[in-house]
């Protein structure tokens, strides 16, 4: 509600039903995350996630639609948190472009190595089960689309004089290669952030 001075007061709390639904959704996602990290996505069922969250199975099906819908929601939530960290690294005050890019890649690789859900997905893939891996590597949403939008906007701010095609190619390179190194780290992983940063800058220098 607006006061006479035109300022906006605090937002009204959600109605009880909306608040319950939000809480239920987060609880189910929390439990699905624990199960996926512990046992792999292939062993996660909506029924078990619902039981652990102490909500009904029909409520979970109504919220997520299917097991695939639950998996996509889980990856999207994890992606949002992941990209927030990358955005903070890119936006560090006083950092040169190359330093900020290297910080962002280093954050992504470090988080990928320590995050139990990501590691659960990666280890399951190495054992021959793709589980949630398609959401992380081949489907355009949520990971690729959101990551490319973030990096692309940042490069546009840093390199407004470069051709959009060069920025798009640089964006695609750093996103795909970073995810690739999360899934399958290369030799001397401590050198990867610097190598990827130099590759991105080389692509931009040609544009």
From TrEMBL:
Feature: DNA-binding region: 45-64
Gene3D superfamilies per record: Tetracycline Repressor, domain 2 (1.10.357.10)
Sequence ranges assigned to domain HTH tetR-type in this UniProt record: 22-82
Domain of life from the UniProt record: Bacteria
Keyword annotations: DNA-binding, Transcription, Transcription regulation
PANTHER family: HTH-TYPE TRANSCRIPTIONAL REGULATOR BETI, HTH-TYPE TRANSCRIPTIONAL REGULATOR RUTR
This protein's name: TetR family transcriptional regulator
Natural source organism: Streptomyces ovatisporus
């Amino acid at each position: 509600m607006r006061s006479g001075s035109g300022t906006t007061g605090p937002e009204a709390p959600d109605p009880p039903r909306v608040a319950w639904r939000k809480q239920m959704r987060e609880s189910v996602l929390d439990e699905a995350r624990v199960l996926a990290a512990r046992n792999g996505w292939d062993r996660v069922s909506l029924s078990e996630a619902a039981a652990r969250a102490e909500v009904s199975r029909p409520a979970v099906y109504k919220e997520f639609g299917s097991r695939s819908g639950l998996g996509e929601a889980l990856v999207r939530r994890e992606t949002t948190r992941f990209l927030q960290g990358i955005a903070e690294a890119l936006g560090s005050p006083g950092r040169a472009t190359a330093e900020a890019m290297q910080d962002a890649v280093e954050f992504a690789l470090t988080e990928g190595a320590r995050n139990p859900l990501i590691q659960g997905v990666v280890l399951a893939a190495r054992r021959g089960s793709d589980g949630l891996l398609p959401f992380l590597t081949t489907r355009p949403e949520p990971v690729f689309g959101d990551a490319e939008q973030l990096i692309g906007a940042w490069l546009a701010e840093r390199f407004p004089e470069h051709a959009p095609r060069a920025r798009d190619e640089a964006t695609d390179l750093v996103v795909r290669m970073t995810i690739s190194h999360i899934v399958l780290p290369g030799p001397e992983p401590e050198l990867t952030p610097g190598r990827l940063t130099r590759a991105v800058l080389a692509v931009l220098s040609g544009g």
